[in-house]
Amino acid sequence: MTDYNFAYLDEQTKRMIRRAILKGLAVPGYQVPFASREMPMPYGWGTGGVQVSAAVMTPDDTFKVIDQGSDDTTNAVSIRRFFERTAGVAVTEATKEATVIQTRHRIPETPLEEGQILVYQVPIPEPLRFLEPSEVETRKMHSLEDYGLMHVKLYEDISQHGAIATAYAYPVMVEGRYVMDPSPIPKFDNPKLESPAIQLFGAGREQRIYAVPPFTKVESLDFDDFPFEASKAEGVCALCGADNSYLDEVIMDDAGNRMFVCSDTDFCGERRQQTHAATQGAPA
Amino acid sequence: MKDVFQETDVLLSVRGLSKFYGRRIGCADVRFDLYPGEVMGIVGESGSGKSTLLNCMAGHLAPDGGEVLFSGRDGIMRDTLLMSEPERRMLGRTDWAFVHQHARDGLRMNVSAGGNVGERLMAVGARHYGSIRADAIDWLERVEIAQDRVDDRPSAFSGGMQQRLQIARNLITGPRLVFMDEPTGGLDVSVQAR
User: Fold this and answer.
1) What does the pLDDT read at residue A228?
2) Active site residue A241
3) Are B143 and B194 found together in one domain?
4) Is residue A256 annotated as a catalytic residue, yes or no?
5) Cross-chain Cβ contact B85/A226 below 8 Å
6) pLDDT of residue A136
7) Of A29, A49, A202, A281, which one is the catalytic site residue?
8) Among B67, B83, B99, which residue terminates a domain?
9) What CATH number has the domain bearing residue B137?
10) Among A149, A155, A223, A228, which would you mutate to test the B interface (most chain B Cβ atoms within 10 Å of its Cβ)?
């Protein structure tokens, strides 16, 4: 433990990141530039999220990491171990017990509470990026609230697919002002962006931090005649029987058999402990 | 008496507009009044500053001097050069239209024809897909583009069709002033005449 400062980053760096976080919280949805550091992991593994987590973490925190809903995939395990080793904080897989949760591509099914911090790993923070390649121009569009182009994208979706086909990274309007990319969470999770918890977004490679403070209005963009729909796969979890959680599709064999299971492993495991065993489920 | 009436009736008034590129003159001390319904053509050799003048008036270039007064829907003359950027952008997608010489400059090439035509509507707050699409199809027909091309991208259109698409995209919000920079370059003679 003496080899590292608490939570790996030095205190000056953490101060710099905290300033960016505070500005982000003060201007919900606004992308604050920050001097992203090299982290001992490659870009794309959550360097932005790790830096934000390191900056907000205290020795009393309990830390949880989610990777695509799961607590036990490579990304989640290695980031969790990283902070176990460099900060010595307690870690958990239970959403309720965690005070800082770093996540990639999901919001936990268990509703978050006041006092919790959800840290998102963000690959591309700019929601207008694929419509307008110029950073100078997108910044101007944000400052002038020039967001017509975002609806052009949704228009194209409907004209090509008959419905808004954007299924993840679904753009949202934060507090009626900034259009924000909620990171590649499924649009099923979009309604959960209105939360009592603090939500922080860190993009390491792109050097941006943005935030959604508790109880902030977050609206998913849509058309009057094509309203936003928080869609998920039709079916119930084969392990716990939940019909209201986001489901992963698992291909079982070459004959086309498949099963659906909860993407949120902690949520699923807890339900199985409460003996919600379904078709294939054995108590966890 | 007649002068006073005309002063309030004028749509666009350009006064002493100048633009320099270093020591070279783009345009110098241009002044004219434009009235509603009037069509003004600016003729000159290439390099004489026609496009410079147009871009200065439309707010795409910052002139070095002069005023561009535009009469808003409330009848008040305002200097568009002193407007804030949001005001000028709003003007640029409601009361004003700008048709580029090259259709590619004025179109989004990776967005369908319908999306191109509907963009201005969405930019001013239209949020009903059905009516945006109906308006877009209506305007495509007015510029003689078949209805079934609405979901094709402009890159699948001929040069003349792209130009007509650009015109439709500009006219959909019913602008009161249209700037055109040699817009009929790629058009068929029959369409040019129209």
Assistant:
1) 95
2) no
3) yes
4) no
5) no
6) 93
7) A29
8) B83
9) 3.40.50.300
10) A155
Residues B177, B107 within the same domain:
yes
Of B51, B83, B115, the residue at which a domain comes to its end is B83
At B3 the pLDDT is: 45
Q: Are residues B91 and B62 in the same domain?
A: no
The residues of chain A scoring below 70 in pLDDT are 1-2, 276-284
Q: Encoding tokens for residue B187?
A: 């058009």
Q: Give strand pairing partners of B127.
A: none
Q: What is the pLDDT along chain B (194 residues), one digit of tens a residue?
A: 344 444 558 899 999 999 999 999 999 999 999 999 888 999 888 888 888 999 999 888 999 999 999 998 888 888 998 988 888 888 888 899 999 888 888 899 889 999 999 999 999 889 999 999 999 999 999 999 999 999 999 999 998 899 999 999 999 999 999 999 887 766 665 565 55
Question: Domain check: are B65 and B108 in the same one?
Answer: no
Residue A13 CA: distances (Å) to CA of A36, A37, A52, A198: 9, 8, 11, 21
Same domain, B90 and B3: no
Q: Is B76 on the interface with A (CB under 8 A)?
A: no
B93 touches chain A (CB under 8 A): yes
Measured CB to CB, residues of chain A less than 8 Å from chain B are 140, 144-146, 148-149, 151-152, 155-156, 158-160, 222-226
- Decide if A155 and B122 are in contact by the 8 Å CB cutoff: yes
Based on the domain organization, do B139 and B73 belong to the same domain?
no
Residue B61: domain span:
1-83
On whether both B102 and B74 belong to a single domain, the answer is: no
Is any Cβ of chain A less than 8 angstroms from the Cβ of B115? yes
Number of structural domains in chain B: 2
Which stretches of chain A are DSSP H helices?
A: 11-26, 47-56, 74-87, 135-143, 148-161, 265-273
Say yes or no for a CB contact (<8 Å) between B122 and A158. Answer: no
Catalytic residue flag (residue A162):
no
B54 and B88 both lie in a single domain:
no
User: Which residues are CB-contacts of A124 (< 8 A; sequence separation ≥ 6)?
Assistant: A181, A203, A206
Bridge partners (DSSP) listed for residue B177: B96
Q: What is the pTM of this model?
A: 0.87
Q: Do B119 and A149 touch (CB under 8 A)?
A: yes
Contact between A147 and A178 under an 8 Å Cβ cutoff? The reply is no
